[in-house]
Specification:
It comes from Parapedobacter luteus. The protein is of the alpha/beta class. It has helices spanning 17-28, 40-54, 69-82, 113-128, 130-134, 165-186, 206-210, 219-231, 258-271; strands at residues 8-11, 32-37, 59-63, 88-91, 140-144, 193-198, 242-244, 247-249. Strand 7 (242-244) and strand 8 (247-249) form a beta hairpin. Helix 4 (113-128) runs parallel beside helix 6 (165-186) and helix 6 (165-186) crosses helix 9 (258-271).
Length: 274
């Protein structure tokens, strides 16, 4: 296992909240960083601040809107073209349960927005980056999930009939957990470890504040948990697990339904155009 100063780590949603804090923690360790965001001004200012504060100049930023699968494809193509090593992908970008005035929102591809951004985008990005991950020994993928998990209704996956922001968010996060389990089996011989993690409950982030919730955890708690799953030698041989903080835990019961996982993967492949 390479030292962190010799690794290349990609973080999506890296210009705010948990993603930005993860980037800062890794920058201090000398890790080469590939940062993603959807606001180029915030992206440039994030990189500039990290370089100035930590002295780590090996930081690059890529812009893409995760609500547009075409931009996700373009992002992956740029990464495959520009990089020869990718040790860790942290799929962190996401939208919380609040927003939209309680109205159901749609992605640019016509999918329910939280399902598209929180789940379909990392589903597609991870798939497209597999060639780069496979050629990097000991690579890992981390799905930043949540303790809030809602079962998927395959008859109403886009929540046309029964939408709430909480349900949309919860099912997108359970879908991430299920995806990690599915990919861990499909890629068991490829040497890639794929896990999901609930970083901490109600961290002090913009996402939590927008939901009018009172923060209960610090961002540093979430950073510690995600970095444990992403970089700790203790997790080097673990794949397909769900972590609550640094502890392996049980996810929602539906995550252990093999037929549900297969159905989700098949539907997701069609929606993402794979």
């Amino acid at each position: 296992m390479r030292a962190l100063s010799e690794q290349v780590v990609m973080i999506t949603g890296a210009t705010d909240g948990l993603g930005k804090a993860l980037a800062k923690a890794l920058a201090w360790k000398g890790t080469a960083l590939i940062l993603h965001g959807r606001n180029p001004d915030k992206g440039r200012s994030t990189v500039d601040a990290l370089v100035q504060e930590t002295g780590n100049k090996n930081i690059i930023y890529y812009n893409a809107d995760m609500a547009n699968l075409g931009e996700v494809r373009a992002l992956a193509a740029k990464l495959l073209s520009a990089h020869q090593q990718l040790d860790v992908v942290i799929n962190n970008a996401g939208i919380g349960p609040a927003g939209g005035g309680g109205r159901r929102q749609m992605s640019q591809d016509g999918y329910e927005l939280r399902f598209a951004v929180n789940y379909l985008a990392p589903f597609l990005l991870t798939d497209l980056l597999l060639p780069l991950l496979q050629q990097t020994e000991g690579s890992r993928v981390v799905m930043v999930a949540s303790g809030l998990q809602e079962p998927l209704d395959f008859e109403d996956l886009m929540l046309d009939a029964a939408y709430t922001g909480r349900r949309a968010y919860g099912q997108s996060k359970l879908a991430l957990v299920m995806l990690a389990m599915t990919l861990s089996h499909r890629l068991r011989d490829a040497g890639i470890r794929i896990n999901s993690v609930h970083p901490a409950s109600l961290m002090d982030t913009t996402l939590v504040r927008e939901s009018n919730s009172r923060p209960r955890s610090s961002i540093s708690e979430g950073v510690d948990a995600v970095l444990f799953v992403a970089t700790s030698p203790e997790v080097a041989d673990i794949s397909g697990a769900f972590f609550d903080g640094k502890r392996q835990a049980r996810a929602h019961d539906q995550a252990y339904d093999e037929n549900a996982r297969k159905m989700l993967f098949t539907i997701s492949s069609k929606l993402a155009g794979l």
